[in-house]
Amino acid sequence: xxxxxxxxxxxxxxxxxxxxxxxxxxxxxxxxxxxxxxxxxxxxxxxxxxxxxxxxxxxxxxxxxxxxxxxxxxxxxxxxxxxxxxxxxxxxxxxxxxxxxxxxxxxxxxxxxxxxxxxxxxxxxxxxxxxxxxxxxxxxxxxxxxxxxxxxxxxxxxxxxxxxxxxxxxxxxxxxxxxxxxxxxxxxxxxxxxxxxxxxxxxxxxxxxxxxxxxxxxxxxxxxxxxxxxxxxxxxxxxxxxxxxxxxxxxxxxxxxxxxxxxxxxxxxxxxxxxxxxxxxxxxxxxxxxxxxxxxxxxxxxxxxxxxxxxxxxxxxxxxxxxxxxxxxxxxxxxxxxxxxxxxxxxxxxxxxxxxxxxxxxxxxxxxxxxxxxxxxxxxx
Length: 381
Prior knowledge:
Elements: E1 4-11, H1 23-38, E2 47-52, H2 54-57, H3 64-67, E3 76-81, H4 84-96, E4 102-110, H5 116-121, H6 136-151, H7 155-168, H8 183-188, E5 191-193, E6 196-197, E7 206-215, E8 227-236, H9 250-263, H10 268-271, E9 274-276, H11 282-291, H12 300-305, H13 332-345, E10 358-365, E11 371-378
Parallel strand pairs: 2-3, 2-4, 9-10
Antiparallel strand pairs: 1-7, 1-8, 4-7, 5-6, 8-11, 10-11
């Protein structure tokens, strides 16, 4: 079977408000960083995939706002809505189709120019649910309560996720919100939607990320050591909340299972060296870990207390600071992919873990993690 590798990455600094940059300005910066990283020019790129959202950008056909800045003129350009990992999945398929050797994938968000509560309220069913005023935060609060009740996970344990990830962010110069906080600080922060407090939630953020994916026949021709896509899968659950068990995430378990099988991974706890997860809220890091088999059911909180997921622990999770320290919504998964690529290359700087031969990246779409995309990246084909 043909293989694909990531050979270039580029990310802007994640910030609360990029007043001086348009969508195109951010894309131009990220794309040129990715090209420089790979030792390529735009002429070496066969096609472009942009990841964006009309709702978040406040315009129709939002991908067109970054097309020129992404070097898409006179090339095949495609658009994907949702998290950047899905854009990467599509870009990889383009490469493996045999029609293209290289694909540039971008993802951008300016949360500072959006009203997330209105946008995510529109994701609910317009007949039965939208009028209730629900949004992503309240939906995830319901999921958090459901998960915590089933597993007996405590607020102190979820708060530790915030302490860990905001602390890790000090070592990542691209991070928006490094904080030196305690569990008590998290538990005393403003209540947003029970049981979620302000420091349980990721911040409003602006940012853009880009990666370059190459077919194995050309992957070694450029500057960077290829980081291979060893396994990947995505899966979606039911749309209606009432049709799901909110305390479980079947779609993530299925996506991880298929990605592991493709990568030949039999024991993810022992074979995954580093993971970057979609921690939009603190409880999610623990919930996702359990559903992917990186922790036994209802044990992630206890393992976190023991330091299992710290940078110097057996399985470093969100060593970059994660999304709790900066959450450019649509670009988030590409930032996570870039962080794992750097870990595997060994050039992650201050947040480099001791060993990183194989890494996991997880992306999310939909309310309360309706759909999940899992990538397994590694040094070897």
